[in-house]
Design goal:
two-stranded antiparallel sheet; 8 helices; alpha/beta; globular; about 240 residues
Length: about 240
């Protein structure tokens, strides 16, 4: 059974894994933007697919922008299992090919919204942004465009009472602590989200660490170990 937690201010959308939902005090907050960032293969896409399925199981519709083209039917069916057909009918999938297409999709999302929608996913908000660096567009133009998209996501999540979850690629810092990872376009990506989770690998290839850095606008601390299984996320004892 999936439980929806309520606090005094916000309804939360559960991920569908008890340990993570507990750390987030019930899940992703409707009306806020949550950022998940981490290196490749740390579970970002699995989290958002499982969250979309969890939302669908609760009867909510989902807007899912797959800029990485990493949402596969095979992975979806592995996680959704017998609910795959019913859940797929509640998930509206967008597949932008360029950063400009991503912006146009994000700015058109309000045209699809009804009160039935509860979750908005952008996976990954920075992959097409990063790919655009090889083109003629200036860094200033790209950064302005990314900030515009993030501001729009923040506004639409607040006004439509959606839980908005965005993922981001990372790069190594060139300033102290040198070599540490941070999201691509860190300034913009850290400005808008109210909740931030960092995903990291561990010595066990199938186990990842989920570290909470910000929760509903306040600095937060907490971490959980999570295994990436064929059927999705699974809790791991420390």
């Amino acid at each position: 059974m999936v439980v929806v937690y309520l606090n005094s201010k916000n309804e939360r959308m559960p991920i569908g894994l008890a340990s993570l939902d507990e750390m987030l005090q019930g899940g992703f907050v409707k009306g806020e933007v949550t950022l998940l960032y981490g290196a490749a293969a740390t579970g970002k896409t699995t989290v958002v697919i499982q969250s979309a399925i969890s939302a669908a199981r609760l009867g909510f519709k989902v807007l899912y922008v797959d800029s990485d083209h990493s949402f596969t039917q095979q992975r979806f069916q592995q996680i959704a299992r017998s609910d795959s057909k019913a859940a797929s009918e509640l998930i509206l999938l967008f597949l932008p090919e360029t950063f400009t297409e991503q912006r146009k999709i994000i700015e058109s999302l309000e045209n699809y919204l009804t009160p039935a929608f509860g979750l908005l996913v952008i996976d990954s908000v920075s992959s097409l942004y990063r790919a655009s660096f090889s083109q003629a567009e200036s860094v200033f133009t790209l950064n302005r465009d990314l900030s515009r998209q993030l501001a729009y996501l923040s506004e639409i999540s607040s006004t439509a009472r959606l839980a908005c979850v965005i993922t981001s690629q990372v790069h190594s810092r060139l300033t102290p602590p040198i070599g540490d990872i941070e999201p691509v376009a860190r300034r913009a990506l850290f400005h808008f989200p109210q909740t931030i989770l960092r995903l990291s690998s561990t010595p066990r290839y199938d186990v990842k660490e989920f570290r909470l850095e910000r929760l509903s606008g306040s600095h937060a601390r907490g971490s959980r170990l999570v295994a990436l299984r064929e059927a999705g996320l699974e809790g791991v004892s420390a």
